[in-house]
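Summary for the lay section of the report: proteins are chains of building blocks that fold into shapes. Here we show the chain for Flavohemoprotein and then a coded description of the shape we predicted for it.
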Amino acid sequence: MLNSKTIAIIKSTVPVLEIHGEKITTRFYKLMFQNHPELLNIFNHINQKKGRQQAALANVVYAAALHIDQLENIIPVVKQIAHKHRSLGVKAEHYPIVGEHLLLAIKDVLGEAATDEILQAWGEAYGVIADAFISIEAEMYEEAEHQQGGWKDFRHFTVSKKVKESSMITSFYLKSEDGQPIPSFLPGQYVSVRVRIAGEEYTHIRQYSLSDAAGKDYYRISVKRENEKDKPNGIVSNYLHEEIQEGDTLELSAPAGDFVLDPAGDRPVVLISGGVGLTPMMSMLLTSVQQQPNREVTFIHATMNGETHALHNQVKQVSTEHPNVKSYVCYQSPTESDYEQQNFQKEGFIDLAWLQSIIEDKEADFYFCGPVPFMKVINESLKEWGITDNQIHYEFFGPAMKL
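The coded shape description reads as follows.
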């Protein structure tokens, strides 16, 4: 436990962190990777270049300082990050390295303002925060390994089937190479895929949502190919599209993530997705009709047009077979074929007026995922409609941000 003096010192740094937080975390990552380049085998290099990882860490450090006397208030955030850490292979031995370089970064950025007293207080505080992460992650590692069909770290899977779902998205059906059972998962969870790409110095790890229901002898991930001009931002996704074929093997960590459909919920469910954000929604949809066949589900998907629309036929089949499922499609720029086939209900973008016209019961649980601008619009629309925070659930592909 931290004493009152340490808590007071940490709290006094909150305004400084609000101003200089991202400078500190940017400096932190630069120093840490200079001294420990092997950690680049774990961290997403692209999120570093975009600055998203630095911003996410700055938010966490700020929240930790703000709530240093009531750290239980940030446990939900800790657990969300711990899921990512466990799936990536972050271990207890990495935390002293992080702590050392975080203090160095604070000292570098703040200069003389970072007194010995402040650095000592932050050293103590970091120890308490790190212990919370290590403890929660230890439980997650234990659970992942010892669940039925579970495993430790990464396991080899064979690509049993590769299916092109649209002009941009391809599904990979993955079966355990050893033929042994695989664990179940909660709808909305993801797996980490680790690849070694020729010409790349370090391994790359990316998380992909599981896009099918659990209880099968395979996992399915549905991966978006990035445009050629954006290839640096999609090095793993494009590698999967271009290089990985049926019969090849991939390394996977056990399913993780806390953005999941509540299986005990009895309110209607509204699933809203944009682009490849439909992948966790597919798992939620397919699981819901399997486990709660009478629960009302509204499935809403937005994409450019029919050419980019993945898994459309599967959703149509589910909504045809289950009268409690209603599905709606919004195309930003429909093709002539889309008009002829009439396979969408709205042109342009999702807005509140349209949501209100198709959602019969606003006392529902709302789940959404997609590009950040899309998610901001959905979140703002739901808030404007009066949907409460405990009804709203969303997931970022990458480090968490503010909507």
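Put simply, here is one thing we learned. The chain has three domains: 4-146, 154-253, 269-395.
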